[in-house]
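Each field is listed here:
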Amino acid sequence: MTLITRRSILIAGTATAGAVLLPTATATATATVTAGAAKTSGGTLTVGSGETYEVAVTTRLSRLTVAAGGTLVAPAGHALTLTVDGVETGQLLTATGGTATLIRAGAYRGDVVLTVAAANDVTYETLTFPFRQAVYVDADGVDRDRSVLTAVLGGKLTDTLARGVSITSTGECFDAVFVQDAVYTLEKPAISLTGNGRCDFAGYGAAVVGDGSATTLVVDGARISTKGVVRTGVIANDGANVVVKNSSVHTRNGVLPADYQATVETPYMESVPWMLGLDGNVRATNLIGRNSKATYLNSTVFSETWGALSVEGGSGLKLTAVNSHIGNTGEYGYGTYAIGDATVRVLGSRFDVGSYATVIAGPAAVVHYGDSTRAAVAALNTELELGLTKAELAALPVRNTVVNSGRFGYMFFGAGTLTLDGGTVINSERATFLNKGQQTAITVDGSGGARLDPRDGVILQMIELDDPGPVNVDGKMMNVGVYTEPTTDPAKNASFDVTAAHSADGAAAFTDIDLVGDFYNGMRNGKNMVLTFTGSTVKGVISATTTRHRVASIDASTFYELGIVTNTVRPAVNNGAIVRLESGSVWTVTGTSYLTALTLAADAAVRAPRGKAVTLTVDGTPTTLTPGTTCTGALTLTVA
């Protein structure tokens, strides 16, 4: 028997891949058996305990029995996959942290096929993962030698298009579609994967992977659902351009191996680092590599926890969501993640997230939330090479973005730039912006109706980074750190100027917007909060503070306490509060506020609520609030 030759039209109508492409055969004497004598007869195969059976060629059976301790293997340079009635099944990882899988012991009946496919070994950092996939596509089209086509049911499969196919897996580390340096379209696929994956930095166990700078993968009308540890829905890697439209992607957590140890070493990481204030072990998507692009249009993307649209490592990455519904079905999770120099754009979308709309990890991340105007979408169509037709562009309605978060709006634990404009509305239970000691450039333009609605009344909260970081344990970076609240007051740094704006400060600018909420700088060590208001009103407290978490120490069991603090307003030590009220701006001070610099434009004002008065002292001296002036020093504004 020889393996099937490749190319041409593969499946038409409702025929299955197995029916069209796979010749019927039974196991033959060409297999190598050790430590016993496997029995084959009448389309059945039995592998006893202690036996190793090498399946030389793709083999169809009516029954397969593998005893505990029995092993099925493929020839060198190949991978072995079991399907039963068109469903990939039976495969399990041989060890926690390992890469290899074997068919587990059991009895399998029905249309049983053992597919021997050419290896698709993918190296990520220190490990090589032996990928198996239902459909492998390269520049020449579908590679039948690397594909497990018995796992492809129904629909039509050609070298450029898969339409209406169904792919189901209940084994571990099996990918549905892997596209390598090719132009390909998945139209209305139904993909269901249950069971753990292994590495979502490589895509080992993902539903759909687009890999390579020559890849343009369009996923249109897909239904993708997964349940399992790092069993990711969609991955774009190494320069690929992946466009997902009119689709749904839903992922649910699996069960981590009992001996898994949480780590930040990416080849071995199978759960979110809890130091982000999150839990979970599968994210819906991942964007990785260099110059990769992933765009989600008119689609629904949800993870249970962890994250929905992730960017993880690499450079020049572009993640975009247009007119989509993004979020988490569980209590914790983020909508998007921005690291390195990634560009993340969210236009006309709804976010229902557990913890954060976006986690900004820097050091040069750029994030924009706005409206899906026709001009903006047309520009993205050109820049990102989305391939949208004039009819598709015209059919996309213009929408604003709405975020509903169960915790914070945006969390910075790295430097980054964030812009909110158009009619964007951010609803959050806690602070809209949580800055954990990072350099920020936040811009909010309210001229299009943008609103910030934090339920706890805090718009911007600056605190020291409370991520304890990983701990080196026997040479491995493990997530076993503990955050401990400082018990002493910060010591004054005489070289740090709390009255001046520095490039590394936490800066935020607000234009043409009405704000109700407080702004707190609870930093201990050399970072100012620099706020600029133009044509805006703000009603609240703006002040340097001291902060306290609700608990004195935080570890993996209390990860949800990260970022949650109480504030006590007090004069700045190393945490200046600099306020610039530019033209047309009014600050209504609702409580005692400690600043280090206050600039009033000629037509700006500082007021107290109706029936009260606000007074200012500078270095203890009563000072008149005069438009067109700047005061620096120890400023105290009180309301009586």
